[in-house]
Amino acid sequence: MDTLLVFAAAATLADALTMYRLDPRDGQMPYCAAIVLGIFFLLRGARRKRRGLRMACRTAASAAQPYLVTLDEGKWNGWDTYAKWSGEPIGFGRQMQAADGAERIFHRVCPLLFIACLLLSVVASIGRGAPERLLWCLSAMLTACASLSGALCFALPWLSLTQRLSKSGAAIAGWDGVTATGGSGILLNDTDFFPPGCVSLNGIKIFAGNGYKLPDATEAKIEDLIDDFESIPRMTHDRIGRVLKSEIDPVVEYTNHLAETISGDLSGLRVAVDCANGSSSTTVERLMRLVECKAEIRFYEPDGVNINDNCGSTHLGQLKERVRRGNFDLGVAFDGDADRCLIVDETGEELDGDRIMAVCAAHMKKQGKLRGGAFVATILSNMGLHAYAEKNGMKIECSNVGDRYVLEMMLKKGYILGGEQSGHVIFLEYASTGDGELTALQFMSILKESGRKCSEIAAEVVPWPQVMINVKVPNDQKATLQEKPEIKADIEAAAAELGDNGRILVRPSGTEALVRVMVEGKDSAQVDTLAKRVAKTIESVV
């Protein structure tokens, strides 16, 4: 259809131009402009359709089993495209072209276009004393409008539909408003660290009705049920459950809640914000307007596969450069689901979760809000954080790595601040889990109140040199590697060399087939040497 319309429109335009040159009666063919406009809309519509097609195919290709993505040669004018199969030979493209809003728009717009073509053709021919040109005018106008209707009735709805599909499953992470739904829990896609192409590593986060993550034992039971799902009775109809929808727009409710956690506004601050093409893309702009902060928002157009793709808190290079060149007061980077936040000061230096938490803890202590004069960090937190806390009369409780363990320790000890070096920071006064946007807001409020530069308030926390090396190992071996004699001996030897001036920690990753080797100390050269040595020993054993 597209090819025929292109030729028809081009031929009609050529005919019109030819007649115009042979016939000296100027002004008789105003529909030539309509032909040009029709070609423009046709090409624009084709481009939008191709964008939608690529987006749909990328989304289909990134999906895990049971779907298989193959070539489907019979769709879209014979072009080879992706097809998504789900137990029956129905191409993904064919499913996408099923009836949707496009058909509804077509039925409404086409009669109007036809009437408009008829009226304009009558005016351009009979109205100008040339009734013999009525059919020619009508042909030209219909050709142009066919192009226009193709763009309006198909390409635009197509692109809109694929965008909606590619965003399927997106959620606002860290929103403590889940407790207001009255349900027994909520599910969120885990889009934390994993870049495109690693979909199989992503999982599901499960929140209980109180807004907290489920305990390990409960999650283990759920995993056992999933592994044995064939034995679980199928739920149907009213036994499945209900979807509860808030009467208030969740984006409005969420951003209003965050804005209310600070006093005053953030006017006068200039910040570059990296949304990682993730969930914060839907909320940050409104949040920055609410707090009157002048923000340049970057990487805010998720298409289903570009999340964390060379952007966000795991890839700070572009943000650092932008902050330096743009003379911003600071930069803020979120991860995919926005439960983590890292800061870049005005010089382009990174502030990790330890330093962010130290600044917030000191400010809360000064205001008398740091409950117990203490906060929770993890066993991976930098020794510089511990030195800063001791110097400023604060106590640190260390939990295992993972925001769930940080939260457990906070609840156990009655503290309201805790977090991880990775940027998970929990402000229990305002939220029941880590929230990157909340963290950024608290830090920026402190920065404005201080009247100092970001680099100045962060310089008070001096981190010790720390090296982290990820070693790939088989998933079924990572938990027991430290017990192997040669690895255990090398770890003990490294610890002895460091003495009181550092430490070594070797632990399996909770989400990937990796063992992480972390060495920290006052001598950076020694730290680097020991980390590489232990990592090499692990590689040789595996």
From the N-terminal CA to the C-terminal CA, the straight-line distance is 59 Å
* Order of the strands making up the biggest sheet: 6-5-7-8-9
Total number of strands: 16
CA radius of gyration? 30 Å
Mean pLDDT: 76
Structural classification? alpha+beta
Q: Please summarize the sheet with the most strands.
A: 5 strands, mixed
Tell me, briefly, the overall form. elongated
- Beta content comes to 5-15%
* Low-pLDDT sequence parts: 24-30, 60-103, 164-201
The number of helical runs is 16
Q: Give the helix level as a range of percent.
A: 40-55%
Describe the overall structure.
- The protein has 542 residues and is of the alpha+beta class.
- The protein has 16 helices and 16 strands.
- A hairpin with a 4-residue loop joins β8 and β9.
- It is elongated, with a radius of gyration of 30 Å.
- The two termini are 59 Å apart.
Structural topology:
Layout (H helix, E strand, L loop, with lengths): L1 H21 L8 H32 L5 E5 L8 E5 L6 H5 L4 H24 L9 H33 L18 E5 L14 E5 L7 H12 L22 H10 L10 E5 L9 H7 L3 E5 L18 H10 L3 E5 L6 E5 L4 E2 L1 H14 L7 E5 L4 H9 L3 E5 L3 H11 L3 E3 L5 E3 L8 H15 L3 H5 L7 E7 L12 H14 L3 E7 L5 E8 L2 H18 L1
Parallel strand pairs: 5-6, 5-7, 10-11
Antiparallel strand pairs: 1-2, 3-4, 7-8, 8-9, 12-13, 14-16, 15-16
Helix pairs in contact: 1-2, 1-5, 2-5, 4-5, 7-8, 10-13, 15-16
